[in-house]
Every structure is written in structure tokens, then in C-alpha cells.
Amino acid sequence: MYQLIMEASLVVQLVMIILVLASVFSWLAIIVKARTLRGVDRAADDFEERFWSGADLSHLYEGLRRKTVLNPMEHVFSSGFKEFLRARQHGMPPAEPAQGAMRVAISRELDGMERYLQFLATVGSTSPYIGLFGTVWGIMHAFLGLSGVQQATLAMVAPGIAEALIATALGLFAAIPAVIAYNRFSGDVDRIAGRLENFSEEFAGLLNRQSHPRASEASVATTGE
């Protein structure tokens, strides 16, 4: 196979180089993205356990302010609680600004988690066509080499066709893992997005109850009756 690649035409060799590089970079993106999303899930589990354990929200917020890097759920909480405190200091209804801040935080976090997904989608959709272009070019080059031959045999054209088909194989080798990874990571990002949105809604409800304690107590009393 090495000899076939070295004897291929320049265009086919360039196609092979492009596909090999695309495969290498897509695998790097797959490894990085898998670790990142796995870390986001673990960090979200840890934070939710602390959040729902009855910890004081002010102490939890102060602890996060001392951290240099926040995971997505910590960022959503910190953004919402910061806006909650600011609105309450200015005598404004605090729950609505907190919800807006959390929506912005979620959007920013999702933008970060979707990084490299477009690259994987591009590799998965274009690599087979790039490989096919190399194959067509290689076969065309092989048959053009027979133009000055009186009697053509399969042995004369087989090496050229074989080296051209390597381009197709490389295209599929690059595309298949990229497509599988893109579908998997897209589903993971959607699941994490739903998790962050559910947390923000629950947290907003908690902040709303804290900002209207009397109304909440009256509601509880009415329910009890």
C-alpha cells in the first residue's frame, strides 16, 4: 500500500494528505470534546448535590466568587444570584433579572460546548466526496496512461485503480468516526442544555419565593386550609 501511495499522481497524494489531516484533527476534537462533556456532567452532579443539600446560597455564591474557573452550572447559578442581589439592592423585583442573567449564561455555556461540533460535521459530510474526487481523478489518470498503448491489459490499469480507491477508503475512514461523534456529542449537548434550563427554572422559583416570603407563607396557609 505504501508503494501505491508513493506512486500515485500528485492530485491523489494531495487528497490523501488532506484526508489524513482531517482524520487526525477530528480524532483530537473527539477526544477533547468527550473529556469536556464528561467533566461537565460530573461537575454538575457535584454542584447540584451541594446546592440541594441545604447550603446557604450566600455562602455558596461567595465560595464561587473566589474560583477562577466555573463549570457551566456554577456559572448559571453565580450569574443568577449576582443579578438577584443587585436587583434587590436597587429595590427592583429580583427574580426577573436573575432569570435573564441565567438565560444569557446558559447561551454562552452552550456556545462553548458546541465548539468543534461544526468541524466534525464538516469532516463527516465532505470527506467522502473529497475521497471520491481523488478516486475519480486517479482512475482517469490511469486510463489516460493507456492512451498510447496498443493492447491494454488489466495488469496495466490495476495499480492505478487501486491507488485511486485508497482515497475513497481514507475518505470513509475520516468521515465515519466524525459523523458518529457529532451525533453523540450533539445529543449530549442537548441533554446538558435541558439540565441547565431545568436548574435555572428551579433556581428562579426558589429566588422568587425568597423575594416574596409573605406571599409564599400565605399560599402555604391557604393550601393547608
TrEMBL record:
<dbReference type="GO" id="GO:0005886">
    <property type="term" value="C:plasma membrane"/>
</dbReference>
<dbReference type="GO" id="GO:0043213">
    <property type="term" value="P:bacteriocin transport"/>
</dbReference>
<keyword id="KW-0131">Cell cycle</keyword>
<keyword id="KW-1003">Cell membrane</keyword>
<feature type="domain" description="MotA/TolQ/ExbB proton channel">
    <location>
        <begin position="71"/>
        <end position="197"/>
    </location>
</feature>
<keyword id="KW-0812">Transmembrane</keyword>
<dbReference type="GO" id="GO:0017038">
    <property type="term" value="P:protein import"/>
</dbReference>
<keyword id="KW-1133">Transmembrane helix</keyword>
<feature type="transmembrane region" description="Helical">
    <location>
        <begin position="160"/>
        <end position="182"/>
    </location>
</feature>
<dbReference type="GO" id="GO:0051301">
    <property type="term" value="P:cell division"/>
</dbReference>
<protein>
    <recommendedName>
        <fullName>Tol-Pal system protein TolQ</fullName>
    </recommendedName>
</protein>
<feature type="transmembrane region" description="Helical">
    <location>
        <begin position="116"/>
        <end position="140"/>
    </location>
</feature>
<dbReference type="InterPro" id="IPR002898">
    <property type="entry name" value="MotA_ExbB_proton_chnl"/>
</dbReference>
<comment type="subunit">
    <text>The Tol-Pal system is composed of five core proteins: the inner membrane proteins TolA, TolQ and TolR, the periplasmic protein TolB and the outer membrane protein Pal. They form a network linking the inner and outer membranes and the peptidoglycan layer.</text>
</comment>
<keyword id="KW-0132">Cell division</keyword>
<dbReference type="InterPro" id="IPR014163">
    <property type="entry name" value="Tol-Pal_TolQ"/>
</dbReference>
<keyword id="KW-0997">Cell inner membrane</keyword>
<dbReference type="Pfam" id="PF01618">
    <property type="entry name" value="MotA_ExbB"/>
</dbReference>
<feature type="transmembrane region" description="Helical">
    <location>
        <begin position="12"/>
        <end position="32"/>
    </location>
</feature>
<keyword id="KW-0472">Membrane</keyword>
<comment type="function">
    <text>Part of the Tol-Pal system, which plays a role in outer membrane invagination during cell division and is important for maintaining outer membrane integrity.</text>
</comment>
<dbReference type="InterPro" id="IPR050790">
    <property type="entry name" value="ExbB/TolQ_transport"/>
</dbReference>
<comment type="similarity">
    <text>Belongs to the ExbB/TolQ family.</text>
</comment>
